[in-house]
């Protein structure tokens, strides 16, 4: 079996009810319940206009920089509801996918979304789509179709490790990765955190929030609070 040219068809998938539970939560609240250590780089931005959050199991693709042959393999083998996660070896010079391939993924495969750690093209149309599309940038320059590459192996996307079957959650803030084996434990914590966060927002808005902890923290960390003007 040639390493670098492998396509795995099977994945360990998360419980669909767990995946559905994350669909109602902001990515930021879930990330806060994971020690704020799961968010993809802000270089990966939302490029379309979905009316819902992106959530689904990761279908991972590792491409050679600027090559999309294994993304075509993803078109063949991904499943409805998947989030395609594409690692591109850090390249940002060639688009990996555009409207033609995206149309197939949206209309025929009915994926939940796509995350591209690289450029896309045809943004004039894609920017108005309801399909959640995340990418680094755009460029008219097209990709090669030679390989190598691999499908459904662990990848690094947006500086975050993603394994096939991990839960990918995206909203206008960006994208996070929830490890599949931890998803059932994280979901109730994130749901409780979200309820607390909504109550906190109301308290801040009404001015009833208790900020005395800020004074204590500044004192404990050795800050000086000076009732005077700064003079160089």
TrEMBL record:
The keyword Metal-binding applies. It is an enzyme of class 4 (lyase). Mg(2+) binds at residue 122. One of its GO terms (biological process) is methylation. It catalyses: oxaloacetate + H(+) = pyruvate + CO2; 4-hydroxy-4-methyl-2-oxoglutarate = 2 pyruvate. It comes from the Bacteria. InterPro entries: RraA/RraA-like (IPR005493), RraA/RraA-like_sf (IPR036704). Belongs to the class II aldolase/RraA-like family. PANTHER family: 4-HYDROXY-4-METHYL-2-OXOGLUTARATE ALDOLASE 3-RELATED. Catalyzes the aldol cleavage of 4-hydroxy-4-methyl-2-oxoglutarate (HMG) into 2 molecules of pyruvate. Also contains a secondary oxaloacetate (OAA) decarboxylase activity due to the common pyruvate enolate transition state formed following C-C bond cleavage in the retro-aldol and decarboxylation reactions. NCBIfam families: PRK06201.1. Homotrimer. This is Putative 4-hydroxy-4-methyl-2-oxoglutarate aldolase. It comes from Lactobacillus gigeriorum DSM 23908 = CRBIP 24.85. The lineage of its organism: Bacteria, Bacillati, Bacillota, Bacilli, Lactobacillales.
